Amino acid sequence: MAVEPSVIAETKTAADTKPLRADARRNRDRLVEVAASVFAERGIDASLEDIARRAGVGIGTLYRHFPTREHLVEVVYRREAEALCAAAGELAAKHPSDVALEEWMRRFVDYIATKRGLATSLRILLTTNSTLFSDTSGRVSQALRQLVEAAVADGTIRGDVDASDVLHALSGIYSAPDTPEWRDRSRRLVKLLMDGLRFGANSAG
Fold it and tell me: Is DNA-binding one of the keywords (predicted)?
């Protein structure tokens, strides 16, 4: 069911601008964390009651923070995208550049799993908040580009690699059939992609 733009705007203002007590903030963060997992597992038809139960709160608490399903979906989507983008710098600081790139792409699979689960509500949000997706996709692309360029620079992947081609290959995972083994298969594809990126390193380009 479509949600009027004004409804989303009103609920976002009410829930996001009001200062929260520490316990309320913890409840909200827990709800978002659980919702991301449940949406990825069961899709957009996942029960809000089940999300509240798994988060250890009542359904009334969920609705106080997220008066509409679409509002919860938007917050979950933003959280997943921000975490994915932040992971690029965190991984680069901890691992060799090619390892950081591979681990980031594995996390990209988890991000896509959540996005697939949110697909219906994301289409609704697209009609009311067109900048949500353009801003997010730009940041995700930049995070990947930084990792690819670092790996190219130190010779751990091929020198003729373009980040946009890597993103195109990864994005194909989104359209793969939604089967029980989708996530495992997608991670195997990431491994194959990395094998191809590493092949000929220090000699390609």
Answer: yes
